[in-house]
Design goal:
This protein is of the alpha+beta class. The protein has helices at about 65-80, 100-115, 125-135, 135-140, 175-180, 195-200, 210, 220-225, 225-235, 260-265, 285-290; strands spanning about 1-20, 25-45, 50-55, 85-90, 145-150, 155, 165-170, 240-245, 250-255, 275-280. Strands 1, 2, 3, 4, 5 and 6 form a six-stranded mixed beta sheet that branches. A four-stranded antiparallel beta sheet has the order 8-9-7-10, with helices on one face. α2 (about 100-115) runs antiparallel to α3 (about 125-135). It starts with a strand and ends in a 12-residue tail after the last helix. The protein binds cytidine-5'-monophosphate.
Length: about 300
């Protein structure tokens, strides 16, 4: 059996750094949201044992350093020893862009591989492996709107935010998450926005611009990277209802009723900026379109 899956990106609607943990990681309160931008991952069992990973268009390594490879190896070693898979990963999500591409790919592999091999690893074991692969990976096992606590890997499902069309702008500058966190020094503590507390308490959905979210990593990134600063400023000037860095960047997302206005604003910028017109996806919507069915456009 061969199946092709969509591995969706995320944005951080809100990202608050509360301080540094003893292991050097930072304690976060973040709201994750799935968006329609995705990579494609095709998986089939092979007669040979081991992992045959192919990344045809580049954009990610095709070796053991790829999180897909590491996720697949753990599943095979523990629940399907001696068996083998061929995995083809086609990338769209910019690498190092704060959209969680690699983490999404890893989580998709952790959930899809057992389906293909017809094995059933216990859910708590899969969550544990996800944490070991990276701080964003556990979120992607859930998807939709979710709160990330601790290192961002303690996940609480939230009431889904209303669907929102967004422009994602990748300035084409890969950002090191480690460096961004390291540059924070002692982070300023800020109280959580009242609208977010209200939303968490009542479970009543609110439009993203009305949430009053922010990203504590934004200032450090905007200060350092001129390309990201100019994307950010142009989107603000174009009248976006929200403009925010996703994760540690460099992708900036913007809320527009009319995406064309935002696209025009960044068209004039020089450099490598790439734009993606996307919409947010609730958990049920992401689950429904997780598998590519025959005759359906893959990059919907
Ligand atoms: O877990 P992941 O590999 O995604 O994290 C990359 C780096 O980002 C970590 O090595 C750490 O330096 C930093 N980080 C952090 N606090 C977090 C998440 C990531 O300091 N909550």
């Amino acid at each position: 059996m061969s199946r092709t899956y969509r591995s969706f990106a995320k944005i951080n609607v809100h990202l608050q750094v509360d301080g540094r943990l003893p292991d050097g990681y930072h304690q976060l309160r973040t709201i994750f949201q799935t968006v329609s931008l995705h990579d494609l991952i095709s998986i089939e069992e092979t007669s040979a044992s081991g992992i045959d990973l192919e990344v045809p268009d580049g954009g990610a390594p095709a070796d053991e350093t790829n999180l897909v490879h590491r996720a697949a190896r753990t599943i095979l070693e523990r629940w399907a020893p001696g068996r083998g898979v061929r995995i083809v990963l086609r990338k769209r999500i910019p690498a190092g862009g704060g959209l969680g591409g690699g983490s999404s790919n890893a989580a998709l592999t952790l959930s899809a591989l057992p389906e293909i091999l017809r094995v059933e690893p216990p859910a708590h074991e899969v969550r544990k492996i996800a944490r070991e692969l990276g701080a964003d990976v556990p979120y992607f096992l859930v998807g939709g709107t979710a709160l990330g606590l601790g290192r961002g890997d303690d996940i609480v499902q939230l009431a889904e935010l209303p669907e929102q069309s967004l422009l994602l702008v990748d300035p084409g500058v890969a950002i090191s998450t480690t460096e961004v966190f390291a540059s924070l020094g002692a982070p300023r503590l800020r109280p959580m926005p009242a609208a977010i507390l209200e939303y968490l308490a009542t479970g009543q959905a609110v439009d993203i611009p009305d949430l009053g979210g922010f990203n504590d990593l934004e200032e450090a990134v905007l200060e350092r990277v001129a390309e990201i600063r100019s994307v950010y400023t142009s989107l603000r000037r174009a009248g976006a209802a929200c403009v925010r860095l996703s994760g540690s960047g460099g992708t900036v997302f913007a809320c527009f009723a009319d995406l064309e206005r935002g696209q025009e604003a960044v068209r004039g910028l020089s450099g490598q900026a790439k734009t993606f017109a996307v919409r947010t996806l609730s958990r049920p919507a992401a689950m429904e379109s997780r598998v590519v069915s025959a005759g359906e456009g893959e990059w919907l």
